Design the sequence.
């Protein structure tokens, strides 16, 4: 015995109704593809709606990150720009010699007004090579260290899009960076590190 009655022919949708429903679903899928998926995933925005909704920026960042990841996988290194910022403190020095081979990479998607802190656990005298870049806008940053009652400020910056160098720990503790996004849109910060440290972790 069946739990429900079989539908009658009159209750079944007609061919015209099926075609109409299929066309509606197809048009809806195309609209979503053009206005949402293309801008958010690939940065392609033929209608301009993605830019208004903030999706195109997200897609541009994803595309840039995918390109950089592919380049990292191929060369296992990052091309260091010649525009290296001079740093006065002796705890952070500029790159010298061959291009670094990165050990860790941290991605920070910072919403408007959001901050994030990344620290390296280092012993006194250890050195860590680093480079970070901001995609989608500039950020404020504070490079500092603390541990065992000690504290040090290496460098601070406002409206910066990148920085790089070698951090030397003057004492055992946590040494790293605090980033703050003061833009009205999301910014992606990509931090790459290598060298002498136990681990890298995001504090918050």
Sequence:
């Amino acid at each position: 015995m069946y739990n429900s009655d079989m539908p009658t022919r009159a209750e079944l949708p007609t061919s015209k109704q099926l075609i109409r429903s299929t066309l509606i679903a197809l048009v809806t899928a195309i609209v979503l593809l053009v206005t949402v998926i293309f801008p958010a995933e690939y940065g392609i925005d033929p209608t301009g709606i993605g830019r208004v909704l903030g999706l195109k920026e997200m897609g541009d960042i994803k595309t840039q990150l995918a390109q950089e990841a592919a380049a990292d996988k191929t060369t296992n290194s990052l091309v260091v720009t010649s525009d290296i910022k001079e740093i006065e403190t002796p705890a952070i020095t500029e790159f010298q010699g061959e291009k670094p081979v990165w050990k860790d990479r941290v991605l920070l998607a910072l919403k408007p007004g959001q901050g994030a802190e990344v620290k390296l656990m280092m012993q006194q005298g250890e050195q860590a090579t680093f480079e970070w870049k901001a995609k989608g806008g500039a950020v404020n940053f504070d490079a500092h260290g603390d541990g065992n009652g000690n504290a040090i400020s290496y460098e601070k910056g406002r409206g910066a899009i990148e920085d790089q160098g070698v951090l030397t720990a003057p004492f055992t503790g946590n040494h790293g960076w605090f980033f703050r996004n003061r833009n009205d849109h999301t910014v992606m910060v990509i931090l790459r590190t290598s060298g002498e440290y136990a681990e890298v972790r995001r504090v918050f």
